[in-house]
Hints:
This protein has strands spanning 2-5, 8-11, 20-23, 29-32, 40-43, 47-50, 58-59, 69-76, 84-90, 96-102, 110-113, 137-140, 148-151, 155-158, 166-169. The chain is mostly beta strands.
Amino acid sequence: LWASTDHGFYKTIDGGDTWVQKNNYPIRDIEINPQNPNTLFGSSSSIFYSHDGGETFTSSAGMPLPADVGRVAICVTNADTNYVYAVASDDNDGSLHGIYQSTDGGLNFNLKFDTLNLLGYSDDGTSSGGQSWYDLAIACSHTNRNRILVGGINVWRSNDGGNFFTIESHWVHPASIGYT
Length: 180
């Protein structure tokens, strides 16, 4: 089992009786490669990866993040574990910095989308701000490597690997597109 906290990453090999701190990175999200549980991804305001079951982590130098990133969430798809996605938010106002895609197992990432604020309040992506410090999520389909969902205040879906997004649900009730 693994646990991440604001004060470090922990691992237990005895069902939780004893925990060993492996680093002091403030990791907010852990994702496990569904086909290889020794490969872990962690994120905070950057991305880390481990190929030894969480014993050691390396910063992903292939993630072109600006300095004012507030939080990053990640997902890896069982449909093709070379595909790893990340959503990054702005530290200043909680808005979207971008959606990133890796096709080499998380070693390198490319910016795929940053044209709408998927983390804002509006249902068309034109609002500013957001609350990504509180609600930030990204999920990958288990059967389609190009289908991802991004959640903040609203939920958005891409079927083409993050090039284009449509809103799936809105935070205001009632909403014609569904209520988050």
